[in-house]
Specification:
The chain is α/β, with parallel strands linked by helices. The protein has twelve helices and 14 strands. Strand 8, helix 6 and strand 9 form a beta-alpha-beta unit.
Length: 356
């Protein structure tokens, strides 16, 4: 009986290392990056660890689906979409290999001086070389994709076939406006039909270009200071609403995070509080829009007949940290335990020190 409660579709975490990163200081628990620069064949799919102690702590705050994403290099690898409950990766996966991730070389590079806490910005001298490497890789991949029966299977190029067939997204990490435009035009040059910009710090400057080319933006964590010293301090909070108003499809993420992703619903709450966007529209930034971008909206993302019963029940507003209390979680119709390691530790030490 959920009379008087709130029912929400499961929150979807994009661009995360959930399930492939456990303890930052223990290298053996980090499985999100491979050696080398060009790794399209690296798959987060088979690395996803359903026994992670981090995952239950996210799930109890409403994170019911996660996109696990490889990191590093120029071409990082292929992401997959998972439920945050399952016996193994085969059981948890919602969509295999939904897209290839690349790190577009920024026009400018920044370095931080720990002695005087200053930030130095200079032209990225290696940018041209990286772009040439990308051009060679994509030219080879496109030519390979046009072969009906290659004499020899090339695992790297085989992994990129979906980009040219329209079955995979190309996720491009880029922040500067110039880089965003160049990256999108680069993808179009090679016939990549589905491009998604990730990061998008200056996406508002090229919003009309993004809308015209039907390019969604996955914003990195907006609970931060602005990228430039002369920007309004609230500009990161206002960015989702402004892009939404400009007609760009927007999703929110936590910038390659894992345990911090538990606060993802609150990013949506901030977007609603600092922009001309309703709470319902803000909720779509972490539910419906991510599902549509990743191509899993036929089964998740909204509460509709015929979709998976992946939902949660709360006593308060899921997007407000002051009242968000999750009471029930269902993934594909099955109720999932709300227990996690942090709750067990809380109860353990509450009892130890005689706290009520």
């Amino acid at each position: 009986d959920v009379t008087g409660k709130h029912i929400y579709p499961g929150i979807i975490a994009m661009g995360s290392t959930i399930g492939i990163q456990e303890i930052a200081s223990v290298r053996a628990t980090l499985d999100y990056e491979e050696i080398g620069d060009i790794n399209p064949h690296v798959r987060s799919l088979i690395a996803y660890n359903t026994d992670s102690e981090v995952i239950p702590t996210l799930r109890t705050n409403g994170i019911l689906l996660a996109q696990a994403v490889p990191q590093g290099g120029v071409v990082s690898g292929s992401s997959s979409v998972f439920n945050t409950d399952g016996w193994n990766w085969e059981d948890a996966v919602v969509r295999k290999d939904d897209g290839i991730w690349i790190n577009w070389p920024a026009y400018l590079s920044r370095s931080f001086n720990y002695e005087d806490y200053s930030v130095t910005t200079k032209k990225n001298e290696k940018r041209a070389d990286v772009i040439r490497t990308l051009e060679t890789t994509f030219a080879d991949a496109k030519a390979y994709a046009e072969l009906a029966n290659p004499a020899t299977t090339n695992l790297r190029l085989e992994a990129m076939k979906g980009l040219f067939k329209g079955t995979q997204n190309l996720y491009v990490r880029a922040d500067y406006a110039k880089d965003i435009v160049e990256a999108v035009k680069f993808a179009q040059q090679f016939g990549v039909g589905k491009v998604v910009v990730v990061g998008g710090d200056e996406a508002l400057k090229v919003a009309s270009f993004l809308k015209e080319n039907n390019v969604p933006v996955v914003l990195s964590g907006i609970h931060r200071l602005p990228g430039r010293q002369d920007d309004d301090v609230y500009s990161p909070y206002e960015l989702p609403a402004k892009l939404h108003k400009a007609g760009v499809k927007v999703a929110l993420s936590y910038d390659d995070g894992w345990w911090r992703v538990r606060n993802l619903p609150f990013l949506a709450g901030t977007a609603a509080g600092f922009g001309e966007i309703s709470k319902e529209e803000a909720l779509q930034l972490v539910t419906q829009n991510p599902a549509q971008i990743m191509g899993v909206d036929k089964s998740v993302g909204t509460l509709e007949k015929g979709k998976h019963a992946t939902l949660l029940v709360t006593t308060g507003d899921i997007m407000d940290m002051r009242g968000n209390v999750v009471e029930h979680i269902f993934i594909k119709g099955g109720e999932v335990s709300l227990d996690n390691k942090q709750k067990r530790l809380y109860e353990k030490y509450k009892e130890k020190y005689g706290q009520k």
